[in-house]
Design a protein that fits this description.
2 domains, 5-stranded parallel sheet, Rossmann fold
Amino acid sequence: MNKPQLPLNTAKYLIIQQKMIGDVLTSSILCEAIKQKNPSAKVHFLVNQHTIPVIENNPFIDKVVVMTKEIEKSPVKLFQFLQQIKKEDYQVVIDVYSKPISVLIGKFSKAPLKIGYKKWYSQLTYDELYVYKPKPETKAGLAIENRMHLLQSLDTSYAKELKPKIYLTEEEISSAKKILQQENLVNKSLLMLGVLGSSEEKSYPLLYLAKVLDTIVETTEAELLVNYIPKQLETVEKLVKLCEPKTQQRIHLSIYGKSLREFMALTFLCKAFIGNEGGAVNMAKALEVPTFSIFAPFTKRAAWALYEDHKNVSVHLEDYEPETYVKLSLKEIRKEATTYYKALKPEYFKEKLINYLKEVL
């Protein structure tokens, strides 16, 4: 298809990124990049309802378009939603999600320029198609670079990378400090722990994680906060019982984020985030909080090891048992996720963790 000539500086854009919190936060860089280059443009960002907190107060988003569970489940409501998309008269659609439902949204938009990833179902609908890059060119990681690459259809001068940001208010930070005062933790060295992943198969075994927490307490004076929601309390308490008594005394379960924004504000006041790789790690990085993340053995590290340096460190089974990744695909490893998670013993990276703690505390 021939790319239409559009006044991109004043165009109306729709960025589509459904799915998880980490994906939405990462894709928000497209809104910033477009608005920085074209301040007069209108940028709308289509996301799932539960992910909205990570893009609250983002000055580069003119409107959040919300995809709800009701819309996804009801053909009637989906049709009504698509009609609303059509009425917006977008000139450019950038579909980061590029799944059948988002391609349908792109099709209904009638935008003159529609950009997405190359899939068998997107080729007849979209004007510009991209394939995922296999290797990163910068420290940003593939999740960042592949998203920024979508902007090349608009202007080849766009940068290869841009760091996601979260915008907390002074009121949110002040409120978090008051929460810490409940246990006299203001001005203490605090670490936020990501003890549970987005699913069980993405969660480091509790027994191993307990040893990680024991190492932290053995080697530092840090006090420990835990990222969890009330329905996860029973599992978190199991973890605490597996820790040494001294470690248990440093864990403050009464303090936790009762909302996603509250969690982010508490994390902002911590020296580092340590735990399972996932959306919470990405949020910490977007808040400029150092991270030490433990990857699930089947996760592609090159995609989500974003902006790694001496303050953002990760560990992956591939670091210690590379032969496994020569013999097996990530899909094969995922089928036996529990077995391979158990292979990533905390002893493997104990020294690395201790050196990291010296760096950030």
